[in-house]
Amino acid sequence: MNRKRTGIAIGLVLALAFCGAAAAQDTVKIGVVGPRTGPAAATGAAFDEGIKLAVDYVNGKGGVLGKKLEVAFEDTAGAPDKAASGFERLVTRDKVVMVLGESHSSSALAQIEVANRLKVPFVVVEAWADEITAKNYRYVFRAGPSNSGVVNQTIAQWVKAETFKRAYVIAENTDWGIGIGKLTENALAKAGIPYESMITERNSQDHYVELTKIKAFKPDVVLAYIYGVGLHYFVAQAGETGVSPKAVVLDGAGPPSLWPDYWKNVGDYGDLECFVSSMHEKVELTPLAKYFREAYTKKFGKAPTDYKSRSIFDGILIAADAINRAKATDAEKLVEALEKTNLETTRGTAKFGLTKGGPEYHQWMPPMLVIQWQNKQQVVLYPTQAATGKLKR
Amino acid sequence: MISSSKWIGPAVLAGMCLLPLPLGIYPQHVLIVSLFYVMMAASWNLLAGYTGQVSFGHAAMAGIGAYTSGILAAKAGVNPWVGVAAGTLLAALLGLGLGALCLKMGGIYLSLTTLAFSQILHIIIVNEYEVTRGTMGLQVPGLTAEYSKLTYYYILLAATVLVLFILYRMIHSNLGLSFRAVQNDETAARAVGVRVLHLRVLAFTVASAMAGFAGGLYGHYLLLITPEIPSLDLQFYVLAMTVIGGMGSFVGPIVGAFAINILAEKIRDYGEYHVLVFGLIALVVARFAPEGLTGVWRSLGRRRTP
To answer: What is the pLDDT of residue A22?
Structure first.
């Protein structure tokens, strides 16, 4: 009898688990994936802010297909397995018609396989590995920077423009880090700039041994590709060991240098650090960028800092525009509409590449800036035509 | 009584075969993951529940199975089924080696040694990223040419039935009696001729092989293997499932695995706090219902029956 009762109990648990009311159909739902927990949880917070502003903006203009736009946000914790299962959950449980977001390349590389298998359009906004679009998947787009774009159009050009003599490349052991590190090495070799490089553990809190090696090489620029609070440890310890300010440290990702706890974690060693970003208060590329800044300040009572809040804002506008033009939520029609995107966003006019064979396929690369902290103020160094000051050492 | 217990097993199995048919992809996914946890919790129960060996290396054995099969398939093009068999064998051999090495110690020393083994393996996987791809995750091919949740469900169901059948036969044999004897009083068991060390090593090897088998299948289902499989998080998850379901009972880990995994899906929107919730449930169960959910169910049955 005990077994019988247990069998019934299992049945009850399963029945309870899977009975649920059907979802309301008066909204069009899209999904966002990104890290709300883990070492880059601040990106999740930035995404949250951007989502709120974008939903207000889109619904204020009539929504999509005459319905309200709704966003379901799934935490990926920066872990590829959680990212893949989170993506699948959004599509199969929440029934989203399109997925956007992500800021970890390893997570995005796991997610594009799911997007391809489930045939759901996926617009990556802040995962940079070239392979994401180089695989030429029909359902995968990127409205954001790519490793090759950031290196060849911005970082390598800046290194040449500042006439640095010796460079050190330190990259975390992720798809983004290893990929962008290798591209940087190629660009430095091509420019004839002597360099050395090393790979570091993504979550390491102790960089002293690595910094000793870096110091021995005597570089005048250190290109650090470490995402998350690990970057804070690196910057602080570079200052402690005297690597900086002798050598200029560039945060090759950007957002960690803009997170609220940056100054608390790095102290005065954070000054004169450089970072890449697609946002600066004095460089507004479109009227929408101005709108974003004002709406953000009004809603959150502070100025926007992490540019990823604006990246996801743009991504949602691109998605809403595609759904409205497709006049449907069918994946094939959405892909066709996305391919014809020609939309003004906060970072310029979004338009996806259609040439197959390389990472340019389904890729739109927004312009990036190199910015330096000078007395806790952001000074744009590159591109020179947008510069608001000169490099300080 | 005997006749009712005869049909309950086939009836549950028939129900499990029919269960995913009306369900969507998402609930099917939850069931597949639950079946993986049933294999993990039931095999860990053989160690902790039947022979009193609290091992923290069970998730590591699943990792051995997953990475062996995954690396063979992704890097050498080996058929995933052959890879799963190789992973199972390697996990069994490591279980045998680790068991022979540290089971003489018993008690807390066994727990510490398996904990150290688990951590060492985790560090190796994370740092040897050129082979394992570390935290980036190793993408592996599926077990079948066409990816279908329903196919994976039936594969995992068949694997779970196989694991449970072996465990059931072991537990309900003279071997099972010896396991119980060792757990209840090691000295008394030895005095009546039970070969304590041999029994423990055997249980450790069988449980490790089962974990390796489950890990191998799970990796090919996910199509992505990460250090999350051989992690302490997964280990404690399996532990919580066994304790909450009912350690030392055959049905306990099965109930625990389904209940906890489905509950986890329900409360996952609370992010990291769901781990805290599990901890609290495990504590409450350990204090007020040491025999787990199945123990509560049995005692309710006893009260109702005059």
So the answer is: 41
Contacts of A82 in chain B (CB under 8 A): 228
> Where along chain A do its domains lie?
27-145+286-361, 148-277+369-386
Closest residue, chain B, to A111 (C-alpha): B224
- Pick the more confident residue, B296 or A240: A240
CA–CA min distance B19, chain A (Å): 9
pLDDT digits (tens, 9 = 90+) for A59-99: 999 999 999 999 999 998 888 888 988 999 999 989 999 99
pTM over cut 0.95: no
Q: Do A36 and B271 touch (CB under 8 A)?
A: yes
The pLDDT of A153-172, averaged and rounded, is 96
Ranges of chain B whose pLDDT falls below 70: 1-5, 106, 268-275, 302-306
ipTM for the predicted complex comes to 0.71
Contact A113 B11 (CB under 8 A): no
Which chain A residue has its CA at the smallest distance from B146's CA?
A: A117
Q: Does domain A148-277+369-386 have CATH number 3.90.1010.10?
A: no
Element (H, E) at A373: strand A369-374
Q: Which amino acid is at B254?
A: I
With 0-12 / 13-18 / 19 or more C-beta atoms within 10 angstroms meaning exposed / middle / buried, residue B65 is buried
Interface of A with B in 49-78 (CB under 8 A): 75
Beta bridge partners of A345: A348
List, in order, residues 6 or more apart from B7 with CB less than 8 Å away. Answer: none
Domains A27-145+286-361 and A148-277+369-386 agree in fold: yes
Of B15, B134, B224, the CB nearest to A110: B224
Write the CA distances from B178 to B188, B250, B252, integer angstroms: 11, 16, 20
CATH number for the domain running over A27-145+286-361: 3.40.50.2300
